[in-house]
C-alpha cells in the first residue's frame, strides 16, 4: 500500500506528487497507478503536483483526460499545480486548460476549496407550503388591499370638506328649483281655470 503515501491533502484535494522518469520527464504510467487507489476510495477532488516540471508529453495529457472524466462523473474536479507557463501552454494545446483546474500556488487550491465547501454547506431555500404557493399564485388579494387603501384615502379627503353654514342655499341646491317648478304649475292651473270660466260665460 505504498502508493497511498504518494499524496497529501490540500484543502479538498488529494494532491499527488508527480512521478518522474529517469530522464526527468513526467511518468504518465506511474501516475495512473498512483491515482487509482484514490479513485477506488472515492476521492472527488484530485490534483497533480507538477512543481519543478517544465514540459509535458502527450501521454501525460491523455492520462489527465481519463482522470478528469472519472472525477466529473462524481461531480468532482481534477487540478494541476504548476509554476511553469510552458506546462500551461501544453495543457492549452491539448484542450485541457478549460476542462481542468490550473493552480499556480497551493494557496489558490485552499481558496478554491473554501469556496467550494461553503457552496456545499449552504442551506437550500425553504420549500414553500402548498397553501403559501396558492396564495402566491393569486395576485388579486394584494390588488384588493390596494383598492381598499385607495378608496379609504379618497373617502377621507372628501369627508374632510367642511360645510360653510354662512352660505345659504348650498345645503340642497335642488330645493329652490323644486319650489319654483311647483309655483309655475299652480299658475298654469289657475290660468286654465280662468280660461274655462270665460269660455263658459261666452257660450251662455
Could you describe the 3D structure shown?
Residues 123-144 are annotated as: Disordered. Residues 22-108 form the STAS domain. Pfam families: STAS. The chain crosses the membrane at residues 183-203. InterPro entries: STAS_dom, STAS_dom_sf. The protein is α/β, with parallel strands linked by helices and 204 residues long. The chain has 2 domains: 2-121, STAS domain (Transcription Regulator spoIIAA, 2-Layer Sandwich); 174-204. It is built from 7 helices and 5 strands, in the order E-E-H-E-H-E-H-E-H-H-H-H. Strands 1-2-3-4-5 form a 5-stranded mixed sheet. The chain is rod-shaped. Mean pLDDT is 78; it is low at 138-162.
List the helices and strands and how they pair.
Layout: E1 7-10, E2 13-17, H1 28-40, E3 45-49, H2 58-72, E4 77-81, H3 85-93, E5 101-103, H4 106-121, H5 130-136, H6 140-159, H7 173-203
Helix pairs in contact: 1-2
InterPro entries: STAS_dom (IPR002645), STAS_dom_sf (IPR036513)
Keywords: Membrane, Transmembrane, Transmembrane helix
Transmembrane segments: 183-203
Amino acid at each position: 500500500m505504498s502508493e497511498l503515501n504518494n499524496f497529501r491533502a490540500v484543502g479538498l484535494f488529494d494532491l499527488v506528487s508527480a512521478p518522474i522518469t529517469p530522464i526527468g520527464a513526467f511518468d504518465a504510467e506511474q501516475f495512473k497507478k498512483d491515482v487509482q487507489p484514490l479513485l477506488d476510495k472515492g476521492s472527488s477532488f484530485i490534483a497533480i503536483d507538477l512543481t519543478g516540471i517544465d514540459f509535458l508529453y502527450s501521454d501525460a495529457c491523455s492520462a489527465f483526460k481519463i482522470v478528469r472524466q472519472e472525477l466529473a462523473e462524481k461531480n468532482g474536479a481534477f487540478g494541476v499545480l504548476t509554476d511553469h507557463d510552458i506546462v500551461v501552454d501544453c495543457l492549452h494545446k491539448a484542450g485541457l486548460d478549460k476542462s481542468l483546474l490550473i493552480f499556480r500556488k497551493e494557496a489558490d487550491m485552499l481558496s478554491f476549496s473554501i469556496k467550494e465547501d461553503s457552496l456545499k454547506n449552504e442551506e437550500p431555500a425553504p420549500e414553500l407550503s402548498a397553501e403559501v404557493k396558492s396564495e402566491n399564485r393569486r395576485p388579486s388579494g394584494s390588488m384588493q388591499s390596494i383598492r381598499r387603501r385607495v378608496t379609504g384615502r379618497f373617502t377621507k379627503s372628501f369627508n374632510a370638506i367642511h360645510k360653510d353654514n354662512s352660505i345659504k342655499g348650498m345645503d340642497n341646491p335642488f330645493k329652490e328649483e323644486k319650489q319654483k317648478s311647483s309655483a309655475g304649475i299652480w299658475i298654469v292651473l289657475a290660468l286654465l281655470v280662468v280660461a274655462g270660466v270665460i269660455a263658459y260665460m261666452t257660450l251662455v
